[in-house]
Design goal:
The structure is a single chain. By secondary structure, the chain is an alpha/beta fold. The chain contains nine helices and twelve strands. The chain has helices at residues 9-26, 45-64, 68-81, 96-103, 116-124, 194-200, 205-210, 239-253, 277-298, and strands spanning 85-89, 129-137, 141-148, 151-157, 160-165, 170-173, 184-186, 211-217, 221-226, 231-233, 260-264, 272-275. Strands 6-5-4-7-8-9-10-11-12 form a nine-stranded mixed beta sheet. Strands 1-3-2 form a three-stranded mixed beta sheet. Helix 4 (96-103) packs antiparallel against helix 5. It is rod-shaped.
């Protein structure tokens, strides 16, 4: 029960009594022709008046105390419109517990008072959620359909490592569970070109299997670092076409498996190969040995 502010129950009763007496005195002329026996009071009218008075007092107390939403929820729940079932679909990385907590449901939440827009915004705030649809199915069911972002790569930048989607948006920081099997992109600008570049690499399954990282250079072009340490330098234009030519040499001569450090595909008319330090040292030693042999032969010692 809620008390009215500024008066007690006795004070209110006195105030109503005094007002009623003033009314009778002011309009006493209207009642002089009426006899008591002419008045017909309906049966139980007193009880109805008391019930009406207390009902008005309760309603006033509810609104004055700011409890109208709770009262509305209780009434609608009691009428059979309480949320009893929640169906969640489409979530793989987002837990159902998190979704239920975002909906802020309890045993008295009503279907009528349930705010769909607020629930949608709360679920959409989760990092894996791309979009979400929240629907009320009367009389007692809420359906939540989630569309999650699809991770395409791991992005290493500025000392951080994140998992990104096709549009280059960061989903979550990297961990071994979510990042398993994803390619590694390195450098600023790599995230913006991730979708296009990885689409271009889709036809080079052999290189994708051997690629340790894809490195963005000056936000203009890419290098591919293979698992044996060989670095393939791609051009800014027609990188897939130049890579296909290099792959043909790999299939015929094992180009990527040789003791080389860099394979430069940036020139349109040639492929330039830089030997590794070990291979260069062996080559220089072989050249020196060949020069000594030539000198010996010229001197007739061979």
């Amino acid at each position: 029960m809620y008390a009215l502010k500024g008066s007690s129950g006795a004070g209110l009763l006195s105030f109503l009594q005094a007002g009623f007496m003033r009314f009778l005195w002011r309009y006493r002329g209207l009642f002089k022709h009426f006899q008591l026996e002419d008045v017909r009071v309906p049966c139980h009218s007193g009880s109805a008046a008391v019930a009406a008075f207390f009902s008005i007092a309760v309603v006033f107390g509810i609104f004055a105390g700011g409890h109208a939403p709770q009262a509305f929820r209780l009434v609608t729940s009691a009428a059979g419109f309480a949320v009893e079932k929640v169906n969640i679909s489409g979530n793989h990385q987002t837990s159902e517990i998190d979704v239920l907590e975002a909906l802020e449901l309890d045993g008295e939440t009503s279907m009528i008072g349930f705010d769909v827009d607020r629930a949608r915004a709360a679920v959409a705030a989760f990092p894996w959620v791309e979009s979400v649809c929240v629907r009320k199915i009367y009389p007692d069911q809420i359906n939540v359909t989630v569309v999650e972002r699809q991770p395409v790569a791991i992005w290493q930048h500025d000392g951080a490592v994140d998992i990104i989607d096709r549009q280059g948006r960061v989903i979550v920081p990297y961990n071994t569970v979510w990042g398993r099997g994803l390619p590694l992109l390195v450098g600023q600008g790599a995230e913006r070109q991730a979708g296009v570049f990885l689409d271009g690499m889709s036809r080079f399954a052999g290189i994708r299997e051997r690629a340790r990282a894809y490195i963005r250079i000056g936000d203009r072009r890419w290098d591919i670092l293979l698992d044996n340490g060989v670095r393939i330098k791609l051009p800014e234009v027609d990188a897939p076409g130049r890579l296909a030519r290099a792959l043909a040499l790999e299939n015929s001569d094992g180009l990527f498996s040789r003791d080389v450090e860099n394979i430069d595909l940036r020139l349109a008319d040639r492929i330039t190969v830089a030997l590794s330090n070990e291979a260069l040292a062996r080559r220089m030693a072989a050249v020196r040995e060949l020069e000594r042999w030539k000198k010996a032969r010229k001197a007739g010692r061979v």
